[in-house]
Amino acid sequence: MQRFLLKHKNKIALIGGVLIALSFLVRWTIGNMFLFEILMIAASVLGAAPIAIMAFQSLRIKVVSIDVLVTIAVTGAFVIKNYEEAAIVTFLFLFGAYLEQRTLNKTRSAIKELAEMAPESALKLMENGEFEEVDVDEVDIGDVLLVKTGAKVPVDGTVVLGEGSVNEASITGESLPVAKEKGSKVFAGTILDNGTIQIVADRVGEDTTFGRIIELVEEAQDSKSQAERFIDRFSKYYTPFVLVLAFVVGLVTRNVELAITILVLGCPGALVIGVPVSNVAGIGNGARHGVLFKGSEVISDFSRLDTMVFDKTGTLTVGNPSVMEKEYYGENVEEVLSYLASVEKESDHPLAKAVLEHIGEVETFSVENTGVVKGEGIIATVNGRRIAVGNVALMEREKVHLDDRMRADIDRFEKNGNSLVLTAVDEELKVLMGVRDKIRPDVKKDLDSLKRLKVKNLVMLSGDNQGTVDLVAKELRLTEARGNMLPEDKSEYVKDIIDKGQIVAFVGDGVNDSPSLALAHVGIAMGSGTDVAIETSDVVLMNSDFGRLPHALGLSKAITRNMRQNIFIAIGVVIVLLVSVLFSDWMNMSIGMFVHEASILVVILNGMRLLRYRLRR
Amino acid sequence: MKSATIQLETLACPSCMQKIDKAVKSVDGVDKESVNVMFNASKVKLQFDPEKTTIDNITDSIGKIGYEVKKSVVR
């Protein structure tokens, strides 16, 4: 019986509404007051039943919930024979709860959509050599699975057969298809747009990148901010306080009507729901746009940011140096490049890697008498010719003649922030290459957006030499840039500015910056869904997309604003109601309940606006 | 100790959380420290001692106070 009533609350509200409408109809048409009251009594008894059950249950576990206040108020209205008010209050309460649930579902929709992208079944290779459809929970690590065109990849795995292209929007927020072939990693929840692949399962269930993202977001949206914890504590004492207040007022004034009106007005609905609603809608918006907030506390810090500190390599720059400029001197370029490639192949220096990548596939020869001159380069013999690959100092040691044109080129390359790789064959300079790390596309525009969002200082820290760092800083118009920094120097710097009272965010790739990420108020990881990034940071930018940073900052500001508006609305409504009940005579129980429910809907609708938030460029 | 994740009907009022929290904690064998009622996700996560109670006992305690349990996973 109890469960039946609770389960059909919504239908009860509907029937109650019909009964109320009917009774007014009876009163205005045939003017039968007796029938009018009978119908109202029926409506209120029916509506009060589920509320009373909920009230009873919460009292049993010693919680004074809103249901308790409403039940007492309705009972009181009954005692003073005000059946009309009793019926309308119960109806509004139940109908309001229904609307709340509907609208709340909307605010949660972003995250729900995400969770619904979770794969449910998989085609697993059975012992008989056939693929059979099984529940995704039955897939274990090492199982071989078949993924057909249009299907979801069920687990994180490695392609063992076939090729295709995959839409990884659920993981990275990026809907451009990514090509996959044998050896490629694929992720659970992504969709195979075309092709057919077989994969071997590496991680399953909640351990997959997708599973962790969902868990992260779910935990984030339910994590409580300081404001929320305060409101929780507040409402714990607030409802019993309202009960006592109404009782005292009733005793003193002997006015039952006034006492029960206070009970209804005192319901703390909008206050307790306003803050979580802003949070859930905001975090949902982030999840849709490739920004994962790991809690609501961090959103508040993020929105008040003074300084943003960037790691250079891998954050502002792409992270692998490449040949950006080159000059050839003399003929036989191909032959010289072959010699260069042959020598560089022997080296594991980062510049050598960049040079080799640039040259591509060429014929290589065996290398003899290799000698490394520390800090300068390599000297070796290839095909009987003496090859020197290194910087200007090495050329001077080798007595290579540099003419005016070469010196001008060298100056220009250095000015552009390149590291130089010079190649001499038999003491003659043949090739000059400038290697540097590329600045990520659009970084400049994004940094400008951050400045517009009132971040005071943009600081870059890097292990590179100060000259290179200064050039990047100048190009990006940063506030400050420091070179020659080891990881511990970086965290020292972050600690320093925190001690000076600034609110600091650190943006890094999450690999060697963990101390700084952890130390900063807001650690932002440029994660391509890697474990380290997800573990150590407070905010994760999916797909290492720097362009999501302005959206993340703008969103956190919008969430904080929205939360303040909701608290303001909620408190304002309570004050207006209490003042009206004491100093005016138009206020009664039904209007009170109506305003109360309306204010709840207003804060939910206000929170919902965050779902559509977009950064204005 | 086993850990359970219980998916509930959509929770609409924050006071439901308190009720569910207390109801689940009152089941003997449930680790009180571990109980986490998630309002927005409408989930309860907890750990329990399988020798003292069962998952059915726990979901029943939630059902008794009027909230529908949609799914429960024990690991």
Task: Describe, in plain words, how this protein is organized in 3D.
The complex is a heterodimer of chains A (617) and B (75). Chain A has 617 residues and is of the alpha+beta class. Among the domains of chain A are: 2-107; 115-215, Calcium-transporting ATPase, cytoplasmic transduction domain A (Distorted Sandwich), CATH 2.70.150; 322-436, Calcium-transporting ATPase, cytoplasmic domain N, CATH 3.40.1110.10. In chain A, 54% of the residues lie in helices and 19% in strands. Chain A is built from 24 helices and 20 strands. In chain A, the strands form three sheets. In chain A, strands 1, 2, 3, 4, 5, 6 and 7 form a seven-stranded antiparallel beta sheet that branches. In chain A, strand 1 (121-125) and strand 2 (131-135) form a beta hairpin. In chain A, 45% of the residues are buried. The mean pLDDT of chain A is 85. Chain B is α+β, with helices and mostly antiparallel strands. Chain B has one domain: Alpha-Beta Plaits (2-Layer Sandwich). In chain B, 29% of the residues lie in helices and 29% in strands. Chain B has helices at 14-25, 55-64; strands spanning 2-8, 36-38, 43-48, 69-74. Chain B has a four-stranded antiparallel beta sheet with strand order 2-3-1-4, with helices on one face. In chain B, 44% of the residues are buried. Chain A binds chain B through residues 2-3, 6-7, 53-54, 57-58, 61-63, 65-67, 97, 100-101, 104-105, 108, 111, 218-219, 221-222, 232, 235, 269, 272-273, 276, 279-280, and chain B through 10, 12-15, 18-19, 22-23, 26, 38-41, 43, 63, 65-66, 68.
